[in-house]
Amino acid sequence: MESQGLDMKVTALVSDNIGTLAGGRYVDSDVVAVVILSAGTNAAYVEHANAIPKWNGLLPRSGNMVINLEWGNFKTERLPRSEYDNALDFESLKPGYGLLLHTLIR
């Protein structure tokens, strides 16, 4: 930013799904989940903090937390993969990464 002469200060960096969820909740507080479908896919949702088994810190004042699923690299034997899935993965820019997306677009 400095090299471009931009007088800016970065105060936050967020992923597209977190930014979309924040923007949606800014407009309508009833928004509780988003799904991003673009070059990749991901989702985020609002969860009651006391319902998160992994959480062991102080609870936020709102009582809620945003869960970023990062589901694009979800792997499971319960979601069968075809020869096409394996070929697509092999030919992708990042083999072994984004396997859920490869399975969804077949």
Helices and strands in order:
Elements: H1 16-27, E1 33-37, E2 41-48, E3 64-68, H2 83-91, H3 99-104
Antiparallel strand pairs: 1-2, 2-3
Would you identify the regions where 5 or more consecutive residues have pLDDT less than 50?
102-106
Shape: extended
How confident is the prediction overall: mean pLDDT? 84
Distance between the termini: 40 Å
Number of strands: 3
The gyration radius over C-alpha positions equals 18 Å
Counted up, domains total: 2
Can you walk through the features of this model?
Helices cover 25% and strands 17% of the residues. Mean pLDDT is 84; it is low at 102-106. A hairpin with a 3-residue loop joins strand 1 and strand 2 (41-48). The protein is extended, with a radius of gyration of 18 Å. It has two domains: 1-69, no CATH class; 72-106, no CATH class. It is an alpha+beta fold and 106 residues long.
Feature tags:
3 strands; alpha+beta; 106 residues
Q: How would you briefly describe this protein structure?
A:
The chain is α+β, with helices and mostly antiparallel strands and 106 residues long. It has helices at 16-27, 83-91, 99-104, and strands at residues 33-37, 41-48, 64-68. The chain is extended, with a radius of gyration of 18 Å.
